[in-house]
Structure formats: C-alpha cells, structure tokens
User: Fold these one by one.
Assistant:
Number 1:
Amino acid sequence: MRLFYAVFLPEEVRRALAEAQEKASRYKGWKEVPPHQLHLTLLFLGERPEGDLEDLFALGHRLGRQVSPFTAFLRGTGYFPNEGTPRVWFAKAEGEGFGPLAEGLRAGVRELFGEEALRAGGDKAFKPHITLARRKAPAPRVPPVVFGLSWPVREFALVRSELRPRGPIYTILEKFPLRG
Ligand code: 2AM
C-alpha cells in the first residue's frame, strides 16, 4: 500500500484554494489537485506492507496525544523547485504543530522500521505546503496569490494513495486527534 500521513483542510479553506487554482487552470500544462483532495503531507511513506498498518495507527495515536491543536496559516504561493523549471505550485503553510508532527512521525517510523523506511520521502527538509497544481507539460509560472487564511488543526490522518491514470485516489484509513 502506498501510504502517507497528512493534514486535510476544512471546506472553507478548500474553497478559497480552489479559487486560487483557477489561475492555474488558465495555463495548459498545469494540472490542479481536485479541491476535495487538497492536503498537507507530514510524512510520505511510499509502499508499505499491509501488516505495518497497526503500528502506523498506534504511532499516529501516540503522537496525537503529545501534540496540542494549533492554528495553521496560509499566506502565499511558491514553487518547487523555485529555480529553473517548476514541477509543483503550492500554498506555503505555517503553524507551530507541523514541525513537531513531521519530526515525531519521522522519529517514530525510524524506530519502528529503521532508517530505510524514511527513504521514500526523500532527504529534503520538511517544508509544510499544500500542492495546488502539478506541471505536466510546458507552461508558464502561475502568478503569485496572496492569502489570509487560517484554520484550527485538530487532527491528522494516515492516508492510502492509489495511483490511477486520471490521478491518485486518496482514502483516509485512520484519523488521529490532537490532544496534547
Ligand atoms: P507533494 O504534494 O509535494 O507532491 C501523496 O503523494 C503526497 O505525498 C503528496 O502530497 C506529495 O507531496 C507527498 N510526497 C512526498 N514525497 C513524495 C514522493 N517521493 N513521491 C510521491 N509523493 C510524495
């Protein structure tokens, strides 16, 4: 199973981001993430055997008990990579819990399955972001968008991703409330 831990967004934030995504839809070559799938990845795990699920659920619940609910802020957009040809157009996120959640998940997964299990997510530093669109074919950069969005983060989730020709299908397998 292809798995990742993520924070999903409330309806009104998704709606505001969907409006920003219209800017990308003017450019052929950018493919927007469907609004109901917009999310912030905390840790990408890649393929894991189904037998790992129980441990991954337990890790999520344990970490949820250690981190308090917090406010997330979205203020603007950016690109990965920023230099050269961008592949991803994203909304940059801030919030005091994102770092502790991402770090806690990395540490927990390392402890459970070893360093090897962290390889899927790459070795780049964690930058909380919400991918708005992916560049599939040559297309100009989308003009920047400024937001004044915030929402309370009260839970995160373990998500299954099934890759399909039309785009991935995400299924939330388990939710982990924050109650630190
Ligand atoms: P992205 O939005 O920046 O592409 C599901 O694929 C989620 O896991 C996406 O949000 C994606 O981030 C993230 N992710 C992180 N590393 C990944 C990788 N090596 N392959 C695919 N997705 C990855």
Number 2:
Amino acid sequence: VLFGDSFVDTSVQQPYISLEERGLQFGDGIYEVVRLYSGVFHLLEPHLVRLYRSMEEIELKPTFSKAQLVRWLYELVEQNQFRGDGMIYLQISRGVQPRNHIYDPQNVPTLYAYIVGKERPLSSMQQGIKACSEQDIRWLRCDIKSLNLLPNVMARTSAERKGCTEALFVRNGIVTEGSHSNFFLVKNGALYTHPATHLILNGIVRQYVLSLAHTLEIPVHEEMFGLRDVLQADECFFTATTSEVMPMVQLDGTAIGTGVPGPITYALQEAFSEGVK
Ligand code: PDD
C-alpha cells in the first residue's frame, strides 16, 4: 500500500507518475527516510521538522497539514500491517507543470511514500566498515534533503568499486560527511564532527548521537577537520537512519586506531540500541 494524493490510478491500483513531473525532470523536490523498529516510528518528529524545513528552503508549499501527513504515515503502517523493522521513503516534489525551469510556487506538489522491511545492520555495526575518500563535488546547499543525489550516487559507486562500503566526502581538504551518512571521529575521548552548515545534511541520527554523547558526558566538538585527522583518530563512525552508529575501521586501506570498533563507538551504539527497544 502506498499513498499519494493525485496519483494512484485506482482503476489498476498502480501508482503512476506524469511525464512532466518536476521531481523526475528537475529533481525539484525533497525527501525523507524514516525508520521503524518493530512497527514503531523512530525519531519521527525531528524527521518531520527537517522535511518542513527542506520544503520551506525550496519554496515548496504543502497542500496538506502536518497533522494530515502524520495520519497518512500511520495509515501506511496500519494498512500494510507492518510490525517489523523497516523504513518509510517519503518524497514531496513540485508536481506536474509543462516543462520550464521556472517553477510556479503555487503548483500542487506530488507526494508519495512507501514502506519496506529493513533489518538493523547488526553484523557491520559489530565489525565496522571500510570507507574510501571521494571528492565532495556537491552543491552548496547540502543542508536541504534534496532529490538531487547524483554526486552521492557517483561517489558511493566509485567507493564500492574500490572495495569500500561508504564514501567519505572531502571538500577543499575538509572532511564533510558520508555519501549517505554523517561522519564522526573520536580523539582523546572527545567526539568531533563537521558543524551543521550548508555543507552537510544535519542528520537526525547525527543530532540524536550528539544528545546521547551529552548524556554519556562525552565531550563534543562540532569543528572542521581534515583527512590527516581522520587517519590519526582513535575511532571513527558514520551515522544515518539506515546505518545507525556504523564504525569505520579503515579509510583508503589504512586502519583507523586499532582497526576494530572502539569503546566510545560501542558506548554510543549501546545507548542507541537502548532507545530502539
Ligand atoms: N541518507 N548525509 C547525507 C548526505 C544523507 O543522505 C543522510 C541520510 C545523512 C544522515 O541523515 P539521517 O541521520 O537523518 O538519516 C547524512 C538517507 C538515509 C538516504 O538517503 O538513504
């Protein structure tokens, strides 16, 4: 079961998308990925806050209220009788309009969402993953969760061809984030991550991990750092809705710290898991 206002063709029970849908032609839209554990939403509210912020930043005006959207999301879970671990992909684009670079701010947006099962990545969280550095060639509004993911897609594919699970973006010598995750390093017991500027997406799990660190009394520095700092770090990890707290144990073939996930990463994983039960 999916939902979307204008666009489920009830005669065939198939969703359809118009040829002149701006999300398709221009990537003119935004999205969210929300996690469910045992059929229960995880961190839904901050995802909605970010969704509305993304819409506002691109002048996309929803034709539905936030309360309506929340009702649809719960209906999606109920109609699918979804009780497992999974995720909802939710996309809102500018809608249908004769192809033109100029958008009409009054255009009716297209909304759709669907739910899929997704297990927690427990074994990679235990073992850690390898990452490869890639040039961050994205635009200067990475804070918007835009549909334009071509640089992310290319970087991750390039990293995968070099035997890596994630790409670590570097812009002008500064490590920004992963291709689909945020990035943290641990040095001398303190946590470092790129500040939430227009150069990164302020991840929901990033924000959550910062709050967990606060509770665990782990010092946090939202500061810029370079690749050398990463290679000299004691521990490193990525965070994302689908990856949780994912240790990075190797970068470009060089082991990080002892080459296995470290104690602070582990403590944050534990604290995260506590919130999932
Ligand atoms: N990606 N940075 C980028 C570029 C991302 O695409 C994501 C999420 C994150 C982490 O954000 P969050 O903690 O809110 O998931 C950071 C999603 C999961 C995706 O595109 O699949």
